[in-house]
Amino acid sequence: MSPRKLVRTVCFHELGGPEVLTIDSLASPSLQATDVRIAVKAVGLNRADAMFRRGSYIEKADFPSRIGYEASGIVIEVGEEVNHFRRGDEVCIVPQMGLSQNGCYAEEIVVPSEYVALKPAGLTFDEGAAAWMQYLTVYGALVEIANVQKGDAVLITAASSSVGLAAIQIVKALGGIPIATTQTGAKKAALLKAGAAHVIATQEEPLLDSLRSILGENNLKIAFDAVGGPQIAEIAEAMSPEGTIIVHGALSPETTPFPLKIALRKSLTVRGYVFTEVIKDIERFRRAKQFILSGLSEGTLKPVIDRSFKFEEIVAAHHYLESNQQIGKIVVELD
């Protein structure tokens, strides 16, 4: 048997900053009956990637570890039981768990066919690599759990991230009112341009007073929070009775208190959430793919690309990811 092709693959062999990332040559994975082999054209970076690399993510690395949730590319081979993809198809990778083994930062990847989606014709490869984590995360929280309806006010924290911008788009598509937060006023104009109805700079404006000024008291129906930390109490105080706070991130280094008395007084739902809730449920996953593909095809969902890097610049790309300068998605392109 001839040796398997060697594929340039981003790995890390210890936890740490961007400098721990290396480009290794690994044997191309074997193809199982239900798999698809893809020549990667672009990979999308996510905050979760940096947390995974540093050891602070919900999933822990198994060294030497691969990295990366999403990518886009061209199908070059399909397993014998795959009949809905063929060689030459342009596709996107839907995030799956198992980053150490399944990381997408590579020239070539093998993916179970259920985690592959045709790339809508109107999307570039960069946009295709930037779409699925953000929209899948938001879909599960705001469509399946919160059931955003026309006129609902929705608070979106850390709104300049790709997930935050996706939330603005989805809330608008559902007829809700997206209220965005960012740390300083530097990104306010960009968030308003992206579709936010209101923007609060939390280092410059008091969050609770600002929400009450915008909405009046007790009129915030849903909060989609990526930050956690002490501000969760202010968010709870702004919520309407029987409102829902969905915490999907932990960007704050401070402890996140549970606002017990406010939750009791207002009958609030406060719950943690991660996108895997969607991919683990066959019916939810099917509905999510239909919703996202429809939005991408119709243009109501449009990934925002902040900056692209070359594959060899992966360390620089991760430094930029951790700088918090970006508005939207960071993409790494392959030749």
Automatic annotation (TrEMBL):
Residue span, Enoyl reductase (ER) domain: 16-332
Family annotation (SUPFAM superfamilies): GroES-like, NAD(P)-binding Rossmann-fold domains
InterPro entries, per the entry: ADH-like_N (IPR013154), ER (IPR020843), GroES-like_sf (IPR011032), NAD(P)-bd_dom_sf (IPR036291)
Entry keywords, A to Z: NADP, Oxidoreductase
GO molecular function list: NADPH binding; oxidoreductase activity, acting on NAD(P)H
Parts forming coiled coils: none
Keyword Cell cycle: no
CDD domains for the chain: MDR2
Descriptive protein name: NADPH:quinone reductase
